[in-house]
């Protein structure tokens, strides 16, 4: 059973980690947060127990369990790396819940997240538990990944008010598979380029066999105007949509509410992006939007993208400075050429995360 996430908060996976504890915890390579003083009664603050358990895990090759039948209340906190071993496994079978009051969130604005994994390579989170940020949480992203590589998110359900999964700068070889989003803003790259003095680099990102149910978007790339860096070798494959409002969107003119952000053309280079094997319905007429910067988006491939209207109105696509190829795609995307498809049937993608 997958990790079922009812997230009305921010859960950032940022990767780097390590620490050490003495011997004496865990049997047969397995740790439990209960070994480190966690109560799991849904009332007591278990934050420090989680931090202590993580520090032990990060210095060993053991597995850390969040046991079933327990509810753990935790405040915003960071789990830091780099860790000693190449993989770190966190199995969530119980419930992790956020504080019930705004005061309990403490320095969440300073941290920028609720459960923050920073600089951890080879992080695996699995299990049949629940991560519940609660409806009154200060932010609404599901899982955000930054400065990370070799990350797998799979077999999960995420319901939130913003991005279900967002891949940010410094990330590579991220595999998101069999994840259902909805409600929410779908699966996103970015936003990238927020700081025009720092390059945001993202590559080898795989979204596969995922569902978007009544989402604002499904597959989205968003970059700030004036940003620098690149997003390349990005793959959205085997996506199923149910009344997604804007199924496919590249937005290189993404502007935050900050009044002092300079209104410049986007500078993050977007290339080698594949949208393959999309089926389902769009709730808006503008089903596909490729709004690229003056640098242009290059090598964009759409193949077997078949979208139909949830309202009965004709669907359309919008393009600006995008080049590539679209085959077996509806609605038509005029800015992409229509040569014969290389794959009349969609073969499953094989991802080597090592």
Number of helices: 2
Distance between the termini: 25 Å
SSE run: EEEEHEEEEEHEEEEEEEEEEEEEEEEEE
Helix content: under 10%
Q: What is the number of beta strands?
A: 27
Unreliable stretches:
1-26, 340-354
Radius of gyration: 21 Å
Average pLDDT reading: 83
Could you explain how this protein is built, in words?
The longest helix is centred in the N-terminal third of the chain and has 12 residues, at 47-58. Strands 1, 4, 6, 9, 12, 14, 16, 18, 19, 21, 23, 25 and 27 form a 13-stranded parallel β-sheet that branches. This protein has a ten-stranded parallel β-sheet with strand order 7-10-2-13-15-17-20-22-24-26. It has a four-stranded parallel β-sheet with strand order 3-5-8-11, covered by helices on one side. The protein has helices at residues 47-58, 108-111, and strands at residues 3-6, 11-14, 30-32, 41-45, 63-66, 71-73, 77-80, 88-92, 95-97, 115-118, 123-126, 130-132, 143-146, 149-159, 165-167, 171-181, 187-192, 199-208, 211-213, 217-224, 228-244, 246-254, 268-282, 286-291, 297-309, 316-320, 322-330. By secondary structure, it is mainly beta. The protein is elongated.
List the helices and strands and how they pair.
Blueprint: E1 3-6, E2 11-14, E3 30-32, E4 41-45, H1 47-58, E5 63-66, E6 71-73, E7 77-80, E8 88-92, E9 95-97, H2 108-111, E10 115-118, E11 123-126, E12 130-132, E13 143-146, E14 149-159, E15 165-167, E16 171-181, E17 187-192, E18 199-208, E19 211-213, E20 217-224, E21 228-244, E22 246-254, E23 268-282, E24 286-291, E25 297-309, E26 316-320, E27 322-330
Parallel strand pairs: 1-12, 1-14, 2-10, 2-13, 3-5, 4-6, 5-8, 6-9, 7-10, 8-11, 9-12, 13-15, 14-16, 15-17, 16-18, 16-19, 17-20, 18-21, 19-21, 20-22, 21-23, 22-24, 23-25, 24-26, 25-27
